[in-house]
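Fill in residues.
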């Protein structure tokens, strides 16, 4: 059946609390209805939710091969990673254009695995060069899967037909978010900066732009803070970027890297009592997307437990909407009407459904 597949399938769910959710959108081949994929990094599962009825359809186990690394080198460092950071089985998701295959970067297992959506069977896995397999992004034709190899400062490219690595490109320190330019020609990668280094130490915090076909780096855009989630305007002329420690987002020229405008958003609720040094993984805001009509930005205020709706052109705040604990991912529905936001703080384990038109939370899925 013909299905509508959103090419930019989603973004990372970093471990910002006891429980983290990761959101992706697509339409499995067995049905033309849009489905919300929500990953639980602690349980190692992905919930499938009907994006229209908001009913949970089922769960997919993404660690059927075990909860410890299969690679001997990764297995040797795994106990220390878990002790320091906790388990992390679902770090990123991408869905094939056909809707038949789900790709999962499995965090501290250090690998990427592919699953048949219908049968839930694991199809293949590849070990990345990094101790953490971070964000993933899939080309519009489904042929190339890109994964951020966080601790080795590179993005690796996978041929999804041969299930093999076909190259890589160098990034800043600790590559994180991956997005394609709207025309699909370039891959943009944002780097966090090495969070283990002391303040003031040299750190490459940047957006790296690479040709998606040749993997050649065509430009780097340096910044003074770690790059968090970002989203392109529909015409590709602007980037809306969240940064470490910053409450709000900035409008960036994707060619020059110049910051054109800044949107400050309020610190509220629990955020008012948290020192920046105690921000979860340095993230004040984590999760941003744009409505289907391109008019409204959906921004997740992680430390303040709200979602802001902001007019894209004027940057006027249209609504401040209370949600669950630590909202940290944002994804616009396939029809462009809703913003799905994962609340991943301790005890939340929920997804807030924000109506762009009504400017309020219309449902909370648990």
């Amino acid at each position: 059946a013909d299905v509508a597949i959103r090419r930019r399938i989603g973004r990372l769910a970093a471990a910002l609390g006891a429980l983290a959710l990761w959101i992706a959108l697509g339409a499995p081949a067995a049905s033309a209805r849009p489905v919300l994929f929500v990953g639980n990094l602690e349980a190692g599962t992905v919930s499938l939710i009907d994006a229209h009825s908001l009913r949970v359809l089922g769960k997919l186990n993404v660690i059927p091969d075990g909860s410890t690394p299969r690679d001997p080198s990764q297995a040797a460092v795994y106990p220390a990673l878990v002790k320091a950071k906790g388990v992390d089985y679902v770090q990123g998701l991408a869905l094939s254009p056909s809707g038949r295959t789900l790709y999962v970067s499995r965090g501290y297992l250090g690998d990427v695995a592919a699953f048949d959506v219908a049968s839930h069977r694991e199809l293949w896995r590849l070990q990345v060069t990094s101790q953490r397999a971070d964000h993933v992004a899939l080309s519009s034709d489904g042929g190339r899967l890109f994964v951020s190899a966080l601790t080795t400062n590179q993005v690796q490219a996978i041929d999804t037909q041969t299930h093999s690595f076909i190259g890589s490109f160098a990034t800043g320190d600790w590559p994180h978010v991956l997005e394609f330019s709207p025309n699909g020609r370039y891959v943009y990668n944002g780097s966090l900066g090495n969070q283990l280094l002391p303040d003031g130490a040299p750190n490459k915090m940047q957006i790296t732009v690479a040709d998606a076909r040749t993997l050649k780096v065509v430009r780097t855009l340096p910044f003074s803070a770690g790059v968090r989630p970002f989203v392109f305007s529909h015409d590709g002329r602007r980037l809306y970027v969240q940064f470490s420690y910053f409450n709000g987002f900035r409008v960036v020229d994707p060619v020059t890297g110049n910051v054109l405008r800044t949107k400050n958003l309020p610190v509220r609720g629990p955020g008012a009592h948290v020192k920046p040094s105690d921000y979860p993984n340095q993230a004040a805001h984590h999760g941003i997307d744009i409505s289907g009509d391109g008019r409204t930005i959906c921004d997740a205020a992680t430390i303040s437990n709200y979602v802001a709706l902001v007019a894209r052109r004027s940057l006027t705040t249209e609504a401040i909407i209370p949600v669950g604990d630590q909202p940290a991912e944002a994804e616009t529905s396939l029809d462009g009407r809703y913003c799905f936001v994962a609340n991943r703080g301790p005890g939340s384990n929920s997804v807030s459904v924000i109506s762009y038109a009504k400017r309020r939370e219309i449902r909370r899925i648990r």
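The two ends are 30 Å apart (CA to CA).
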